[in-house]
């Protein structure tokens, strides 16, 4: 019985010899390209033409995953105009876009947020930036939200 357990665990772990041989091969021999020229152009054009772009599962008003929902909630709390300032793509409606955006950004997860042409990150990074106040500063700097007007209490 122990022999079977040991044999099965060895079968799941490639030896260092195999890993060394694979690492010596050119990366392109194993790479699978998902990003077509037309999808790349769509991504680049939308990122260049819009200050805030989110590639997500679902839509801003009907997210279809908890991480996409969390990013939409963060942007809403920050005061982003969800119908005006935000350009979103539902990656569930386009399989090529779904795999292509991951290749484009070299980021494996969805949602993906771009602000002023720069990849910001996914849900975890947006949450950390929100909590630290960094996201608000960035959104203000890029003109995606208005500064809060503080009321002066009467003395």
TrEMBL record:
<dbReference type="InterPro" id="IPR002109">
    <property type="entry name" value="Glutaredoxin"/>
</dbReference>
<dbReference type="InterPro" id="IPR036249">
    <property type="entry name" value="Thioredoxin-like_sf"/>
</dbReference>
<dbReference type="Pfam" id="PF00462">
    <property type="entry name" value="Glutaredoxin"/>
</dbReference>
<feature type="domain" description="Glutaredoxin">
    <location>
        <begin position="53"/>
        <end position="120"/>
    </location>
</feature>
<protein>
    <submittedName>
        <fullName>Monothiol glutaredoxin grx5</fullName>
    </submittedName>
</protein>
<keyword id="KW-0676">Redox-active center</keyword>
<dbReference type="InterPro" id="IPR004480">
    <property type="entry name" value="Monothiol_GRX-rel"/>
</dbReference>
<keyword id="KW-0411">Iron-sulfur</keyword>
<keyword id="KW-0479">Metal-binding</keyword>
<keyword id="KW-0001">2Fe-2S</keyword>
<keyword id="KW-0408">Iron</keyword>
<dbReference type="InterPro" id="IPR033658">
    <property type="entry name" value="GRX_PICOT-like"/>
</dbReference>
């Amino acid at each position: 019985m122990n022999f079977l357990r040991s044999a099965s665990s060895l079968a799941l772990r490639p030896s260092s010899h195999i890993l060394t041989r694979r690492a010596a091969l050119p990366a392109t021999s194993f790479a699978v390209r998902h990003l077509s020229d037309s999808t790349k152009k769509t991504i680049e054009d939308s990122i260049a033409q819009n200050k805030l772009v989110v590639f997500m599962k679902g839509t801003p008003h009907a997210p279809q995953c908890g991480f996409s929902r969390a990013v939409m909630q963060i942007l809403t709390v920050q005061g982003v105009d969800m119908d005006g300032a935000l350009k979103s793509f539902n990656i569930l409606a386009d399989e090529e876009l779904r795999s292509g955006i991951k290749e484009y950004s070299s980021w494996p997860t969805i949602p993906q947020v771009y602000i002023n042409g720069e990849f910001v990150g996914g849900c975890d990074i947006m949450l950390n930036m929100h909590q630290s106040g960094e996201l608000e500063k960035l959104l203000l700097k890029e003109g995606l939200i208005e500064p809060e007007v503080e009321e002066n209490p009467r003395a």
